[in-house]
């Protein structure tokens, strides 16, 4: 069947423009049990926080297991909430989150360990040998079956970095020589100085038709991982001085002062999915504490819209996501995009490790009160509007992924502890000037 999906703009583009076999049995039983914890009358969620967190993670794992080409390991950018999706566009960022989620699923026993290990090995084999790339960087979107560039999308520095974070997590977690060897080769062949394009800050990407994208990662956002991966490279490193290449503007909102760009909340989440910034600071700030402040400010911003959109203590959170008019970058503070009262579950799901009680209150409300339409096989729908009755039909791999990984970091610090065992990441943070706070 022909895929008529249009390649959607990346989050950063939006900002610039203004079959598991018998292993399925545990899923079936656990999800049936978990649905019984949500009130059938649309009231409060009846289970414990731990039960809900596990339920979300099991559903997330299903996405990364089923919405994948098992021959290549490449994971769909998006899929229908309840599966049966025939679209074939893969996101390399979703694959990065997926590799980390497979590690979590193995640690939690969500599927057979041998099957998960084989899937990870297949994924890395394909990335190394068949996924279309230039200088070790990969195209933002690819065909999940062939690995070829999707239409005219860019070679993406940040999405390649999200993929590499998943690759390096798998290297440290699995006791498998081929996985370790492939992951090392994939990371070591990335030509980080090339992506600087003779500048001090990394380019956002490259296209064979027009060369490097003029926009650079020269302002604080989700891009800290690019710099640290480049600084830590044992083969093609960039100077530790590049850590100074991006500005760190401060804003004050409702008495809360923190570093941020005029960007959605996800920019305070993504690098934190793998790099452990807890109890560390560089010459500028403690980035973990900064994300806590950013989340608090975002909640206050949402509550300030209560009279117009009905946000309240148990229902808030907006970040780049689907909307009734298509994919959009919206959020605040300051207000960006046409905010219409829609709720984006990954805004709080991806911030659980920063502001647990506040975020859990929202997740419990969505799972209880709105579960009939806002919850499905793969967990929370990407976005919904309780006032208008609009519910997205899709889930997005990166939004499922940030929720899955940050929940696990809150529960066990698994992704932090595993990823930070890579000697390159430790070296990078030391070279960038991080010290114990």
Question: Can you put this structure into words, describing what you see?
Answer:
There is one protein chain. This protein is mainly alpha-helical and 437 residues long. The protein has a single domain, classed as Glycoside hydrolase 144 (GH144) (Glycosyltransferase, Alpha/alpha barrel), CATH 1.50.10.140. It has 17 helices and 17 strands. Helix 3 crosses helix 15 and helix 6 packs antiparallel against helix 7. The protein is globular, with a radius of gyration of 20 Å. It starts with 10 loop residues before the first helix and ends with a strand. The N terminus is likely disordered.
Name some characteristics of this structure.
two-stranded antiparallel ribbon; mainly alpha; about 425 residues; single chain; disordered N terminus; Glycosyltransferase; 3-stranded antiparallel beta sheet
Quick take:
The chain is mainly alpha-helical. The chain has helices at residues 11-16, 25-35, 49-66, 92-108, 113-129, 157-173, 177-188, 192-196, 224-232, 287-303, 306-309, 345-349, 356-369, 371-374, 397-412, 414-419, 423-431, and strands at 78-80, 89-91, 133-134, 137-138, 141-143, 155-156, 205-207, 211-212, 250-253, 256-259, 280-281, 375-376, 379-380, 384-385, 390-391, 394-396, 435-436.
């Amino acid at each position: 069947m022909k895929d008529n999906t249009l390649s959607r703009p990346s989050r950063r583009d939006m900002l610039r423009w203004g079959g598991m076999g018998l292993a399925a049995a545990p899923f079936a039983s656990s999800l049936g049990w978990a649905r019984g914890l949500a009130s059938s009358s649309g009231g409060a969620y009846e289970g414990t926080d731990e039960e809900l967190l596990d339920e979300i993670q099991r559903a997330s794992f299903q996405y990364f297991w089923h919405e994948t080409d098992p021959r290549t390991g490449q994971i769909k950018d998006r899929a229908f909430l309840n599966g049966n999706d025939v679209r074939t566009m893969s996101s390399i960022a979703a694959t990065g989150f997926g590799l980390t989620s497979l590690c979590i699923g193995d640690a939690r026993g969500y599927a057979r360990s041998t099957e998960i290990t084989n899937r990870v090995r297949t994924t890395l084999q394909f990335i190394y040998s068949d996924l279309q790339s230039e200088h070790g960087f990969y195209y933002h979107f690819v065909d999940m079956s062939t690995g070829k560039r999707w239409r005219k999308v860019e070679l993406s520095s940040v999405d390649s970095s999200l993929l590499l974070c998943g690759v390096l997590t798998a290297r440290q977690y699995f006791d498998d020589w081929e996985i370790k060897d492939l992951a090392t080769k994939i990371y070591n062949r990335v030509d980080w100085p090339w992506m600087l394009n003779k500048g001090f800050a990394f380019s956002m990407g490259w296209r064979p038709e027009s060369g490097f994208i003029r926009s650079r990662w020269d302002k604080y956002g989700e891009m800290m991982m690019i710099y640290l991966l480049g600084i830590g490279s044992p083969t093609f490193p960039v100077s530790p001085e590049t850590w100074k290449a991006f500005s760190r503007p401060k804003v004050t909102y409702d008495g809360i002062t923190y570093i941020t760009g005029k960007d959605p909340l996800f920019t305070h989440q993504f690098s934190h999915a793998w790099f452990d910034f807890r109890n560390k600071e560089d010459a500028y700030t403690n980035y973990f504490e900064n994300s806590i402040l950013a989340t608090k400010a975002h909640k206050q911003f949402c509550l300030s819209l209560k009279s117009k959109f009905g946000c309240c203590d148990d229902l808030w959170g907006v970040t780049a996501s689907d909307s009734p008019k298509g994919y959009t970058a919206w959020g605040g503070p300051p207000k960006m995009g046409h905010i219409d009262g829609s709720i984006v579950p990954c805004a709080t799901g991806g911030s659980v490790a920063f502001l647990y009680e506040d975020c859990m209150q929202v997740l419990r409300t969505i799972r209880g009160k709105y579960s009939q339409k806002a919850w499905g096989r793969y967990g929370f729908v990407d976005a919904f509007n309780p006032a208008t009755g609009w519910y997205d039909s899709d889930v997005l791999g990166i939004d499922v992924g940030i929720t899955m990984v940050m929940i696990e970091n809150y529960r066990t610090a698994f992704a932090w502890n595993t990823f930070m065992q890579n000697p390159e990441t430790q070296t990078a943070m030391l070279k960038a000037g991080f010290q114990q706070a």
